[in-house]
Design goal:
12 helices, alpha/beta, 12 strands, 327 residues
């Protein structure tokens, strides 16, 4: 079994090289931004140098409180909110999944929350896939947020170009952010993006945007990788669905995701699997508890880290046999 860490496509590497040597002088920032607007159904887009820069840009524009899931999101949400001295409200989840009763509880449980949320424009930050393993019900969450003076900010690093239009869809999310670092669906190794219909988001963060600009080489990579994003995402989703249906103790087995998280009390499981799955000196096993995945004992098998050329049935069957042996 030859597993390879995800790399930019050959087409992307060639396109970036042409810009680097001056053979191609097109402005790829505008081209990439137009592609992202078409994918997200938003009218405005900015490329930035990282996913965290996109979060910082979005969060800086929020006057009120920042709501974040208690697990299954990105720890940068809390770190950046603290850096900006924002009030943080943590939402209880069902193993990373936000349910409407969780949002209602967060708003109604304390007088402080009621006063805080009633006086300002607030925002809920979440990732399209909780822990990368289970898609959030973005449509339902969006409806609740808009009824309660809360903007919805979706980190769609793992879901941009979703064929079902359930995720990374500007008809539901007010702001969509993402990383194009490695290993992501738009896999350039560097960069990020933010899309919205509200130009005030950018007006309030002009300095951040100015200091987080990317060069045309990276913009070329993002533009080219976007052409392969839908195929990359669909192959990864299909592979994870196959694994989820053939492994035991899968968390959120019936949900779409781009990794597979197994519940396990075995302290040696992550060690054993790391030794079996090596990707050119990169890893594909995350030990839990982990805020970015789930805060309970287990392991995450990061199928999203694999080059899609490795997602053959034979390779997936071998992954299943190895995991089941150690479980």
């Amino acid at each position: 079994m030859d597993l390879k860490f995800k790399k930019p496509s050959k087409e992307t590497q060639i396109a970036m090289s042409k810009v680097a040597i001056g053979e191609d002088k097109k402005d790829y920032s505008k081209i990439a931004e137009e592609k992202l607007c078409n994918l997200t159904n938003h009218t405005e887009c900015k490329l930035v140098n990282s996913g965290n820069a996109a979060i910082l840009t979005a969060m800086n524009s929020i006057e009120g409180a920042i709501l974040i899931p208690d697990q299954g999101a990105w720890n940068g949400f809390k770190q950046i909110a603290n850096f900006l001295n924002k009030e943080i409200i943590t939402i209880k989840t069902n193993q990373g999944l936000i349910e409407i009763n969780h949002l209602e509880d967060a708003i109604n449980n304390t007088i402080n929350n009621k006063e805080l949320l009633s006086n300002n424009q607030n925002a809920l930050f979440l990732t399209s896939f909780a822990g990368y393993t289970a898609e959030q019900n973005i449509k339902e969450i969006s409806k609740f947020c808009h009824e309660n003076n809360i903007l919805l900010v979706e980190d769609a690093s793992g879901a941009i170009s979703d064929s079902s239009k359930k995720l990374a869809n500007g008809n539901y999310s007010d702001i969509i952010i993402g990383s194009t670092g490695s290993p992501k669906i738009v896999n350039v190794g560097y960069g990020g993006f933010i899309t919205t219909n509200n130009t005030n988001v950018f007006d309030k963060s002009k300095l951040i945007l100015k200091t987080s600009k990317i060069n045309n080489i990276i913009a070329t990579g993002i533009s080219t990788e976007l052409d392969f994003a839908k195929e990359n995402l669909n192959k990864t989703l299909k592979a994870c669905d196959y694994l989820k249906n053939n492994l035991n103790n899968v968390i959120h087995q019936d949900k779409r995701g781009i990794n597979v998280i197994l519940s396990s009390e075995d302290k040696s499981l992550s060690f054993n699997l790391r030794n079996k799955f090596k990707l050119d000196n990169h890893g594909m096993i995350t030990k839990c508890p982990n805020y970015n995945r789930l805060k309970e004992k287990g392991v995450a098998i990061e199928i999203k880290n694999l080059d899609t050329s490795c997602l053959s049935k034979d390779n997936l069957d071998e992954i299943i046999n190895i995991v089941n042996y150690y479980c």
